[in-house]
Amino acid sequence: MVAAYNEEDFIREKVANTLALDYPAEKLDIIFITDGSSDRTPEILAGYPRIRTMHESERRGKTAAINRAVSQVRTPTSFSAMLILC
């Protein structure tokens, strides 16, 4: 999970770095949470099919966004979750 707020200028670099992880793709469920972003961050992320983007127009804070996203993780529970804060 990557929580990103108004990261339009840097989000492509973060996506490239995340997609370059040396980890089996079938074990990765990549979620970017962009709640409250008022720039093009959600639209940019929509161009990456391997990434799920969760966006709500209202900004309730990073903790609320992460808590909402945790319930959407689809990897088996035996795998560790990775949380990246931007």
Structural class: alpha/beta
Q: Could you spell the SSE succession in H and E letters?
A: EHEHEHE
Biggest sheet strand order reads 3-2-1-4
Number of strands: 4
For this entry, what is the oligomeric state of its chains? Answer: single chain
Over all CA atoms, what is the radius of gyration?
Answer: 12 Å
- Give the biggest beta sheet: 4 strands, parallel
Strand content: 5-15%
Please, how many helices?
Answer: 3
Q: Would you identify the regions where 5 or more consecutive residues have pLDDT less than 50?
A: none
Helix fraction, binned, reads 25-40%
Fill in the keyword field for this structure.
globular, 86 residues, alpha/beta
Q: How would you describe this structure to a colleague?
A:
The protein is α/β, with parallel strands linked by helices. Helix content is 27%, strand content 14%. The longest helix is centred in the N-terminal third of the chain and has 9 residues, at 11-19. Strand 2, helix 2 and strand 3 form a beta-alpha-beta unit. It has helices at 11-19, 41-45, 62-70, and strands at residues 2-3, 30-33, 51-54, 84-85. It is built from three helices and four strands; from the N terminus they run E-H-E-H-E-H-E. The model has no long low-confidence stretch (mean pLDDT 85). The protein is globular. The chain has a four-stranded parallel β-sheet, with helices on one face.
In short:
This protein is α/β, with parallel strands linked by helices. It is built from three helices and four strands; from the N terminus they run βαβαβαβ.
